[in-house]
Amino acid sequence: MLPAEELLGSQNSDGGWGYAPSGPQRGSWTEPTCYALLALSAAGQQASPSARRGLEWLARLQRKDGGFAPRESVAESTWQTALVLALPAGVNGLELSGLVDRPRAQAWLLDQTGRESGWLHRVRMLLSGVHAEVSVSYDGWPWYPGAAAWVTPTALSVLALERISRTTSPDADSLKRIRGRLDQGRAFLLARRCRDGGWNHGSTKALGYDSDSYPETTGTALLALHGASGPEVAEGLQCAEQLLGNCKSLEAASWLTLGLLAHGRTPARPMQKPHGGTLETAVSALASAALEGRNVFLV
Q: Would 93 be classed as within a structural domain?
């Protein structure tokens, strides 16, 4: 069964997708629904009735502040807002206008910043004798409003804002703010590299020891840094190739593949067939499409 067919078969009756096709994780969530819609777009199914029902389900998750909640029972907007904005809008028939209030979602995303970006946190760090990482001067994005910034929500927010700047016509002030946040987000990612050149979830050190990088976050960061160059990116690409050679997770290997391809590097490892849940199936489909020249994050 092709990934797109598998995703179509696992769609819930309400239009969304769960993390797993059966069991307690079958209920619809924003994250797997967004990845399923991205995968359907990559497979040319972006105008299908299933994609429309998925978008209609997502539209119900937009909150009064403009952001999106992780599921219908949650009132608070979180990082998944970036995933919704990363969906192709007006591309190949996948329309979000009319279903989602994109300007309000964009405004919500631009307002989010990591707790460590604030001056109060930096003062507290200095008073406690803790030497803050160089990345504290850059505004990344948190998982939840008011929390610290992390690599994955920052990378996905960068990709979302890039799509907005490419596919819409923001006014001069909005465009200036978007470009400023993009610069800050990319600088945050470069500053959060681990000693081995890759990325973990956010901290380059833990309890005084150097942190090791993770394959999925390394791939996601490199994808967001597409078009960037320099020794930092070169070290990240070298780390990604090493991680891919030993990667046991198809989902993580798929993120590494997406990151390497975004920099013109063809991965040596062939793609495997998915055997897990929605995220693995969807992200592996995105990586397979990117290997064929269709990276939906970058169009």
A: yes
Whether 294 is in a domain gets the answer no
pLDDT, tens only, 4-51: 888 999 999 999 999 998 888 899 999 999 999 999 999 988 878 999
CA nearest 15: which of 51, 47, 44? Answer: 51
Structure tokens at 61: 């998750």
Residue 187: pLDDT over 90:
yes
| Rounded to 5°, angle at Cα 177 from 171 and 178 | 85
Q: 37: domain range?
A: 1-102
* Residue 233 placed within a domain: no
Of 37, 141, 12, 33, the residue nearest 89 (C-alpha): 37
Does a structural domain hold residue 232?
no
Q: How confident is the model at residue 134 (pLDDT cuts 50, 70, 90)?
A: very low
**116 CB-near residues (< 8 Å, 6+ apart):** 122, 125, 132, 135, 136, 148, 149
Residue 8 Ramachandran class (φ > 0 left, ψ -120 to 50 alpha, else beta): alpha
Q: Which amino acid is residue 122, in one-letter code?
A: R
Tally of domains within the chain: 1
Report CA Rg, the chain: 19
99 touches 91 (CB < 8 A): no
Contact status, residue 97 vs residue 90, Cβ threshold 8 Å: yes
